[in-house]
Amino acid sequence: MTNDLAVELGEKSYPITFPADATVAIRERLAATVAGGRSSVLLTDDGVARAQSKFLADAFGATPRLILSAGERTKSLESLGKVLDFLAANRVNRQGVLWVVGGGVMGDLGGFSAASYLRGIQYVQIPTTLLAMVDSSVGGKTGINLTAGKNLVGAFHHPGAVFIGREFLQTLPPREFAAGMAEIIKYGLLGDQELFGQLEARPVDVRSAELPAVIRRCCQLKAEIVKADEFERAAEGGRALLNLGHTFGHAIEQVTGYTTYLHGEGVAIGLVAAARLSHKLGLLAPADIERVERTVAAHNLPIRLRGPLPLAELQNATTRDKKNRAGGVRFVVMNSLGQAATRSGVAPSTVEAVWREVGAV
Ligand SMILES: NC(=O)c1ccc[n+]([C@@H]2O[C@H](COP(=O)([O-])OP(=O)(O)OC[C@H]3O[C@@H](n4cnc5c(N)ncnc54)[C@H](O)[C@@H]3O)[C@@H](O)[C@H]2O)c1
Ligand SMILES: O=C(O)C(=O)C[C@@H](O)[C@H](O)[C@H](O)COP(=O)(O)O
Ligand SMILES: [Zn+2]
């Protein structure tokens, strides 16, 4: 299909397809897998199992399935054990395929399970949240959280294919849709001025005619960035730019125990914080901060903490960030709205001032 994209990584390359009917496309791929003698099992969460029961029945029939509790706290060592035991109980061998249906939690957990089981089996990403469609299903970052911090254990392990079925968004709760918009705004701010301008001029919602093109554009941007710096090793810039807003966002998620803020909500506040930091570093004007805040708020996302959080804990959480180098915490800042860069050596007092501006105490 001409609309399709590819993440080009040599023999690890894989397609991102946008089928007209996801049920049909996935059923066909599953049938081909089974016909090739490869076993297939399915991982999803109970929210998806409820909301998309017809799709799961029509596409997967009697495929063995593991249904875990929905939510960020499922991205844990305990859940990893459950998925690995499930794979072993179903005697999945190295030719087997794990079909992962759900949001970023299922994608990250399922992907990491696939990376570690038998030292690596194939998995297929079937994202059902907006966030997973535009971000987590693409790029092969998989993992789980530790009490000590977000995504601290994981692997780079790419899926065999990504199927993006926009019909899944019809059952997605509005708060979850908004969370996905945070990552979309992120793409605009980090590398696509035109996309940011479009979101600023007219907020996108689930009924917007431009939504399919916006989803595809984000996948394209991510595929290009991942192709250029698969393992986030570039000395500056590179894949780390996809972390815009995340040093702040992950700290908010961790300090609140992964229960209060959705990932996308943490990122939304993180984008505002990154804009404020960029202003303090002389890169953005006050008017740019206002433009970021207005666009984030127009997509039903928070621009400040909903209640005060302790500054010391937030600062401490940022010291665990995986982008950090020997010299200390590394941030992603904006040189302009649409062009991001990595930046080390930011004075802790500057970061503290930003935290206070978004509501830390
Ligand atoms: N690997 C990456 O590159 C990457 C990128 C971005 C985010 N992430 C991770 O993704 C996670 C967040 O993912 P998320 O925002 O998709 O959240 P999620 O996976 O927790 O899903 C959100 C909620 O929506 C429900 N849901 C999913 N699809 C639905 C549908 N179609 N209809 C009704 N309900 C549905 C789920 O049951 C769940 O309750 C975080 O852990 C984040 O760290 C990873
Ligand atoms: O794919 C990437 O690279 C990203 O940074 C995308 C982020 O949206 C995502 O939240 C990712 O999981 C964060 O990665 P981490 O390395 O900071 O854990
Ligand atoms: Zn993210």
Automatic annotation (TrEMBL):
Limits of the 3-dehydroquinate synthase N-terminal domain:
67-178
What this protein is called in its record is 3-dehydroquinate synthase
Please report the stretch or stretches of sequence annotated as the 3-dehydroquinate synthase C-terminal domain: 180-324
Protein purpose: Catalyzes the conversion of 3-deoxy-D-arabino-heptulosonate 7-phosphate (DAHP) to dehydroquinate (DHQ).
Protein species of origin: Lacunisphaera limnophila
The UniProt entry's GO CC annotations, sorted and at most eight, read: cytoplasm
Obligatory cofactor(s):
NAD(+); Co(2+); Zn(2+)
Q: For this protein, what does the record note about how its cofactor is bound?
A: Binds 1 divalent metal cation per subunit. Can use either Co(2+) or Zn(2+).
Q: Which terms does the UniProt entry file under GO BP?
A: amino acid biosynthetic process; aromatic amino acid family biosynthetic process; chorismate biosynthetic process
> Which of this chain's residues are annotated to bind Zn(2+)?
183, 246, 263
- The protein's superkingdom reads Bacteria
Single annotated GO MF:
metal ion binding
The primary location reported for this protein is: cytoplasm
Query: Keywords assigned by UniProt?
Result: Amino-acid biosynthesis, Aromatic amino acid biosynthesis, Cobalt, Cytoplasm, Lyase, Metal-binding, NAD, Nucleotide-binding, Zinc
Identify the EC number(s). 4.2.3.4
Recorded catalytic activity of this chain's protein:
7-phospho-2-dehydro-3-deoxy-D-arabino-heptonate = 3-dehydroquinate + phosphate
Q: In which pathway does it act?
A: Metabolic intermediate biosynthesis; chorismate biosynthesis; chorismate from D-erythrose 4-phosphate and phosphoenolpyruvate: step 2/7
Which residues take part in binding NAD(+)? 104-108, 128-129, 141, 150, 168-171
What is stated as this protein's family in its record? Belongs to the sugar phosphate cyclases superfamily. Dehydroquinate synthase family.
Q: Where would you find this protein in the cell?
A: Cytoplasm
| HAMAP family linked to this entry | DHQ_synthase
Task: Give the enzyme class.
Answer: lyase
Cite the InterPro entries for this sequence: Dehydroquinate_synthase, DHQ_synth_AroB, DHQ_synth_fam, DHQS/DOIS_N, DHQS_C
Pfam entry (one): DHQS_C
